[in-house]
Amino acid sequence: MRILFLAHRVPYPPDKGERIRAYHELRFLSTHHEVDLFAFADQREQAIAGPVLSKFCARVHLEDLPKRAAMIRAIASLFTSKPFTNAYFYSPELTKVVRAAIDRNEYDVAFVYCSAMAPYVAELSSLPVIVDFVDSDAHKWAQYARHSIFPLSWLYKREAALLGRHERKVAENALFCLASTSLEIEAIDPEKKLSLRLLENGVSMPATDSNAVASEIAALGKYVVFIGQMDYRPNIDAVCYFADEILPRVQKSHADLKFLVVGRHPSRRVRRLARLPGVVVTGEVPEVYPYLRGAIAAVAPFRICQGVQNKILEALAMGLPVVSTPRPALAVGGAECDSLFIAESPDDFSRTLIKIIKDPLRGRGSSSNAVEFVRRRFSWERNLAPLEQWLQEAVVRRKLSASKGKYVPAE
User: By Cβ atoms counted within 10 A, which residue in 44, 190, 201, 207 is the most buried?
Assistant: First the structure.
């Protein structure tokens, strides 16, 4: 089977959420099929990703997306009825390349990663399209609006409304669409009228079970940790919320507790947190697992979030207790894992952490269960397996539609 794969970000290296899922989907599809990848990447990413992706893709086309031009298009879209997300990821050059590839090759199906890439195949009525929303971008922008002041609140609310309409239109026209959690399916299709299917994430288990902690990390003493891309707004909001509202409550009884913020590209707001007592901002590190290994607990204090937080799964895979706000915990089936604690308020959060600090075995006592939970529920091989059946369904539907003289999306 020949597959056209479109992605808004180059899916390599698989070191952040949007890349991890796309990378594993691409690897899975290329195992049994011929896949052509078209994605956006800057020059540095092209140099790193191109040679690797070419090893398992039949063709790799990585299009540069100049930020200045993309921002100009996004700003200009404010005078239209189109989402600025779509305008940002629109490229006349990529449009020509994709259309030429479709004319030249007999693709069996188009696999679109992220709704912003759907316009590239929107007018191709003869080609079955599968869209992986991953999560609802519209609801993410709605959350941004609730946590912002005017005029940004107006801008984000506008984007949420326009993207919501766009997501519904994409789902109506596609053969079927995918989402990473049942919460995302509910967000995109609350009336259950669209063809959305659940395709859960996976997590790569740590390569070693060693409990050794590097001396420089051990020297930090007692700490809790947050790991993530630190120029991403939901992550920024989460660590600031924890440092301002939760950490001081815990430090009243455990003054020596530190909060480690681990991740590349910390924003100015994040770097300023290092001025607070006990807060350490590391920036980019060679590997995150040593920081998880030395922690008392991982924290996921999200007030803005969509989809699956891989950082929760990575911590649980290490047998580390995780304290999380409700939505990201529920997204990974938190009720099934007794090492994942749900806290709704700063007081709940601090009380839970204090209990774990006082009795570390309380959090780690079920660590083997946590590891088994992740291994059982979040195996990439297991969770991606339905894709093969769905691809075959796409081909069958295309043949049936061709015999009727038109292509009919799934009901």
Answer: 201
Residue 132's nearest CA partner among 98, 170, 182 is: 170
Q: Are residues 373 and 336 in contact, defined by beta-carbon separation less than 8 angstroms? A: yes
Domains of the chain: 2-202+380-404 (3.40.50.2000), 215-377 (3.40.50.2000)
Statement: the pTM of the whole predicted model exceeds 0.85: yes
* DSSP label of 204: P
Assigned token pair, 281 = 């901002």
Please report, in angstroms and rounded to a whole number, the separation of the first and last CA atoms in the chain: 24
Displacement of CA 374 from its chain's centroid (Å): 17
Element (H, E) at 133: strand 129-134
CB distance 227 to 320 below 8 Å: no
User: Could you give the 3-state DSSP secondary structure of residue 358?
Assistant: helix
Longest dimension (CA), the chain: 73
Residue 187 to residues 3, 140, 199, 219, 402: CA-CA distances in angstroms? 28, 10, 15, 44, 33
Q: Per DSSP, which regions of 187-308 are E strands?
A: 196-198, 223-227, 258-262, 279-283, 297-300
| Span 267-292, pLDDT tens digits | 999 999 999 999 999 999 998 989 99
User: For residues 56, 61, 66 and 70, what is the CA-based torsion angle, rounded to 10 degrees?
Assistant: -100
Q: What is the separation of C-alpha 55 from the centre of its chain, rounded to a whole number of angstroms?
A: 24
User: 411 by DSSP, 3-state: which?
Assistant: coil
Residues 114-123: pLDDT tens digits?
Answer: 999 999 998 7
Measured CA to CA in angstroms, residue 150 lies from 71, 240, 264, 273, 383 at distances of: 20, 21, 29, 25, 42
